[in-house]
Design goal:
The chain has one domain. Helix content is 45%, strand content 0%. It has four helices and no strands.
């Protein structure tokens, strides 16, 4: 997807809104800041910064926590 069209917040909200009861979803992101190595060796550049912004957004976290059909877990919960 072209970087100008990629919106990780909208994508995540769409996935959550479309989930069915009992389904398990894994969201994988590649957040990060750009450096010379990434710029020279990766096709995932601008989108990395968009993912950082989305994943540290308190409003998105609050929205996710308010969803009745969603349980956030990390590796410590497995």
């Amino acid at each position: 997807m072209p970087p100008e069209k990629y919106d990780p917040t909208s994508m995540l909200k769409r996935i959550v809104n479309e989930m069915a009861d009992g389904d398990t979803y894994v969201a994988v992101f590649h957040p990060g800041y750009l450096d010379a190595f990434i710029l020279g060796n990766s096709s995932l550049t601008v989108n990395r910064t968009k993912e950082v912004d989305a994943l540290i957004d308190p409003a998105l976290r609050t929205w996710l926590e308010e969803q009745d059909n969603l349980r956030l877990v990390d590796y410590r919960d497995l």
